[in-house]
Amino acid sequence: MAGRFAMSVQALVRLLSVAVPVVMIGLACWSPLLATPQSSSESTGPVIVGRVLYRGPVPAPIQIEVNRDPDVCGRTMSMTTLSVDAAIHGLQNAVVHVELGVGEVSAGIIASTPVIVQNKQCRFHPHVAAALMGAEVQIINDDPVMHNTNIIVDNSTALNVAMVAGGNTIKKRLKKSGLHFVKCNVHKFMQAYRLVFADPYFDQTTETGQFSIAGVSPGLHRITVWHETLGVMEKDVQVPARGTVIVDLEYK
Question: What is the CATH number of the domain that holds 137?
Fold first, then answer.
């Protein structure tokens, strides 16, 4: 027993002798993030973790009167576009992207996770999502009424399909990066957003505003944050060769 204990102590000493750098930018109560980063990447390179914050007033949900298919959609539709954790001011459904460095080219990763656009209870689910260019978009109608899924990129229609009740799933490829605005021409109150990137260095914030992005190359990078109500925010960050960069991004 004593021999086994001695060996475990030696192993612990060797482990503690390996230093891992941690760079903290705008740090505020970040020990939970250090313990549980979101990213599932096994990259040995640097990792950027943080939160997107908002401390301003949070408006009440907007009530929109429904003038078509009220038996399915209801007579009013409640729309909430700003979801903030009351305790720590974390902002949900913000999309964070780390831009490539100067002269850097994306590795051309093939997208394997499909992007879902689900018509359910006269809403698009999910309301906001981020995806890799080239991913398959799957459009589903779970409602007993017809919907129209119209995806607009750069003020041009990228996809426009009618979704009949009980119809098959429609599958297409996301061929263009940028902000994809999703709307239903039949039920004009229905809208959603997909942000599509040509590289994998992005994440969407959780209910508490957390995000995690792995595999970014060392050097100076610009972080861009998008939110449907609060707009776009940018911040430059120096990324080390290895370790974790912890950064707060706050809307004013």
Answer: 2.60.40.420
Tokens of 115: 């992007």
The pLDDT tens digits of the residues spanning 56-95 come to 999 999 999 998 999 999 999 999 989 999 999 999 999 9
Give the angle subtended at the CA of 246 by the CAs of 240 and 252, to the nearest 5°.
Answer: 125
Both structure tokens of 9:
């102590």
Q: Which DSSP state fits 167?
A: P
Instruction: Point out the domain boundary residue: 156, 180, 198.
Output: 198
Q: Considering the chain, what percentage of its residues have pLDDT values greater than 90?
A: 73
Maximum Cα interatomic distance, the chain, rounded to a whole number of Å: 77
> What range defines the domain where residue 38 resides?
20-58+85-98+200-252
Q: What is this structure's pTM? A: 0.81
Q: Are residues 147 and 206 part of one domain? A: no
Q: How far apart are CA 227 and CA 76, in angstroms?
A: 25
Q: Please say whether the dihedral angle defined by the alpha carbons of residues 32, 129, 226 and 185, taken in this order, is positive or negative.
A: negative
pLDDT tens digit string along 122-147?
999 999 999 999 999 999 999 999 99
Terminal Cα distance for the chain, rounded: 59
At 223, the amino acid letter reads I
How far is C-alpha 130 from the geometric centre of its chain's CA atoms?
A: 5
To the nearest whole number, what is the mean pLDDT of the chain?
A: 84
Which letter does DSSP use for residue 168 in this model? Answer: P
The identity of residue 108, as a single letter, is G
